[in-house]
Automatic annotation (TrEMBL), chain A:
<dbReference type="InterPro" id="IPR003439">
    <property type="entry name" value="ABC_transporter-like_ATP-bd"/>
</dbReference>
<keyword id="KW-0547">Nucleotide-binding</keyword>
<comment type="similarity">
    <text>Belongs to the ABC transporter superfamily.</text>
</comment>
<dbReference type="GO" id="GO:0005524">
    <property type="term" value="F:ATP binding"/>
</dbReference>
<protein>
    <submittedName>
        <fullName>Branched-chain amino acid transport ATP-binding protein LivF</fullName>
    </submittedName>
</protein>
<dbReference type="GO" id="GO:0016887">
    <property type="term" value="F:ATP hydrolysis activity"/>
</dbReference>
<dbReference type="InterPro" id="IPR017871">
    <property type="entry name" value="ABC_transporter-like_CS"/>
</dbReference>
<feature type="domain" description="ABC transporter">
    <location>
        <begin position="4"/>
        <end position="228"/>
    </location>
</feature>
<dbReference type="InterPro" id="IPR052156">
    <property type="entry name" value="BCAA_Transport_ATP-bd_LivF"/>
</dbReference>
Automatic annotation (TrEMBL), chain B:
<feature type="transmembrane region" description="Helical">
    <location>
        <begin position="169"/>
        <end position="188"/>
    </location>
</feature>
<keyword id="KW-0812">Transmembrane</keyword>
<dbReference type="Pfam" id="PF02653">
    <property type="entry name" value="BPD_transp_2"/>
</dbReference>
<keyword id="KW-1133">Transmembrane helix</keyword>
<keyword id="KW-0472">Membrane</keyword>
<feature type="transmembrane region" description="Helical">
    <location>
        <begin position="62"/>
        <end position="79"/>
    </location>
</feature>
<dbReference type="GO" id="GO:0005886">
    <property type="term" value="C:plasma membrane"/>
</dbReference>
<feature type="transmembrane region" description="Helical">
    <location>
        <begin position="126"/>
        <end position="149"/>
    </location>
</feature>
<feature type="transmembrane region" description="Helical">
    <location>
        <begin position="297"/>
        <end position="320"/>
    </location>
</feature>
Length: 228, 331
């Protein structure tokens, strides 16, 4: 059984409909890339999964219906979100950001700082004063502190220096290799996604139009739907 | 942080040294002023949990101050008249024990904060301010019309209530008692701000939507903080009533809610010792300027304007700079 299963999900921003029927599945331990051009509904799909946006259709996580849950209950079921634009709690220090999100489980501050040593060096520093890359690491660390079963990374490497992007991708690869965590990735860098992700789902105008193994994602498909 | 710690220590030393000097110099009025500052600081520390950490701009915290005050007034008035109060068919004796009065004040204030919080925390921004203000006015007008307990004239208590081992009528002893409570609450506040609960509340203040994505329930966090805040302010109300040996509807007034808020803004929103610094400055201005002109509030207003315009972190922020960690605030 899939850990996350979306079937024919529709969602709107007021009168403006953004999703017209998205179906996708993520199994335990699987890393899935959610792809598509800008404005095709990737982040809206994430918002629907995390219950930040009302949605219709079937949304199930570990067999439980998500559609009636508030956002914090969905998170407590085990959905960890790294939101687009980092969005740390700027007035809190690195350690306080991590503690605020902490829930019992194998991920604690030491383990997060082991994954991102830069965070360990800056435990007492206010999040607002961190570099963009460090804030991104903190956003990932904060999501890990909730001990999620599914980690959703929404544009986690956007706008970062190449060396920082490498660090983030290395961390994602390490999460895949060393934990059984399922990961849903939204990113614009195809090469890195090919290396880390098992499968891809492509959205086009609010609908899923292609899904399959990463190895089956050929140049024709990416040129047609992803624009690369 | 070092500067803030030094400033905090200096404020505490001054708070102990001035009444100690007044006691040695036989200046009981100065001790009473210091006690007033300590009690107002306690009320403001309570509000600062809701306002500073939780970002809830409550304009009705006088409700809890008044409930604490009336808890003292009603219990003590029944004790001094040797008549039990009749409540829901029960006959309840009054008491002159501060410990019992504090317990009643804290429980009733917490219950009121729970009910008011459940209704008002569904709103935010100006609507939250208006709802809390409306609750304040509701209690204010109720107390005016409550003839059994003095109505508009209030209630006088002839002898200050008792605390085991102390003569609370001796100014320095009552001051010491109030200061001890303030120190305990400040310690609790410091622990709370850095606890996972306090950090989560702080996170929910910065972004409720983001906090929800990490599994935090902003409504529940705010409600708990609001109840704690109300309970502390209620305790301050009981102490204030005992200081004056008098309670009246002004303890429920919106002006008092405003004054508690002003203390925090002057001292530093979200800063541990901000309410204490604000209360000391407020009482000092009230005494010094109040002796010169009855329009002393104009000068207080000017001081408030200067702080808001040029010292957004209040006096503590002005002297100590921005806080090192998020822990307690957003100054």
């Amino acid at each position: 059984m899939s850990l996350l299963a979306l079937s024919d999900v529709a969602a709107s921003y007021g009168a403006s409909q953004a999703l017209f029927g998205v179906s996708l599945e993520v199994a335990e331990g699987e890393v899935v890339a959610l792809m598509g051009r800008n404005g095709m509904g990737k982040s809206t799909t994430v918002k629907a999964i995390c219950r930040m946006l009302p949605a219709s259709g079937a949304l199930r996580f570990d067999g439980q219906d998500l559609t009636r849950l508030p956002s914090h209950r969905a998170a407590r079921l085990g959905i960890g979100l790294v939101p687009e634009g980092r969005r740390c709690f700027g007035d809190l220090t690195v350690a306080e950001n991590l503690l605020a999100a902490s829930r019992a489980g194998e991920w604690d501050m030491d383990r997060v700082c082991g994954l991102f040593p830069r965070l360990g060096e800056r435990r007492g520093q206010r999040a607002a004063s961190l570099s963009g890359g460090e804030q991104q690491m903190l956003a990932i660390g904060r999501a890990l502190m909730t001990n999620p079963r599914l980690l959703i990374l929404d544009e986690a490497t956007e706008g970062l220096a190449p060396i920082i992007r490498q660090e983030i991708w290395a961390a994602i690869a390490a999460l895949k290799a060393k934990t059984g965590m399922a990961i849903l990735v939204i990113d614009k860098t195809l090469a890195e996604q090919r290396q880390v992700c098992d499968r891809a789902v492509i959205l086009e105008r609010g609908r899923d139009v292609w899904s399959g193994d990463m190895t089956a994602l050929d140049a024709e498909v990416t040129a047609r739907f992803v624009g690369v | 942080m070092r500067r803030e710690a030094a400033l905090n220590a200096a404020i505490l030393v001054a708070l102990i040294a001035v009444p100690a000097w007044a006691h040695l110099s036989d200046e009981p009025f100065t001790i009473t002023l210091a006690t007033r500052a300590v009690i107002l600081a306690l009320a403001a520390v309570g509000l600062n949990i809701a306002l500073g950490i939780g970002g809830m701009v409550s304009f009705g915290h006088a409700v809890y101050f008044g409930i604490g005050g009336y808890a003292m007034g009603i219990l003590a008035s029944h004790a001094q008249s040797y008549t039990p109060m009749e409540l829901f068919g029960l006959s309840i004796e009054g008491t002159k024990s501060m410990l019992v009065i504090w317990l009643v004040a804290v429980v009733l204030s917490a219950l009121a904060a729970l009910v008011i919080g459940l209704l008002s925390l569904r709103t935010s921004g100006v609507y939250f301010i208006m709802i809390t203000l409306a609750f304040g006015q509701m209690f204010f007008f109720f107390s005016i019309s409550w003839a059994a307990y003095g109505g508009e004239d209030g209630l006088s208590i002839y002898v200050r209530n008792g605390f085991p081992g102390l003569n609370t009528l001796v100014p320095i002893q009552y001051f010491g008692l109030c200061l001890a409570i303030l120190l305990v609450v400040l310690w609790f506040n410091a622990r709370l701000a850095r606890s996972p609960f306090g950090l989560a509340l702080n996170a929910a203040r910065q972004s409720p939507a983001r906090a929800e994505t990490v599994g935090l329930n902003p409504m529940r966090l705010r409600l708990v903080a609001f109840v704690i805040s109300g309970a502390i302010t209620g305790l301050a109300g009981a102490l204030f009533a005992d200081l004056n040996r008098f309670v009246s509807p002004t303890m429920f007034s919106w002006q008092l809610s405003g004054e508690i808020t002003v203390l925090i803004i002057i001292g530093g929103v979200g800063r541990l010792m901000g309410p204490v610094a604000g209360a000391v400055v407020f009482v000092a201005l009230e005494h010094l300027l109040g002796g010169l002109t009855e329009f002393w509030h104009i000068y207080l207003g000017a001081a408030l304007l200067l702080v808001v315009l040029f010292a957004r972190g209040g006096l503590v922020g002005l002297i100590a700079g921005r806080p090192g960690g998020g822990g307690g605030g957003h100054g």
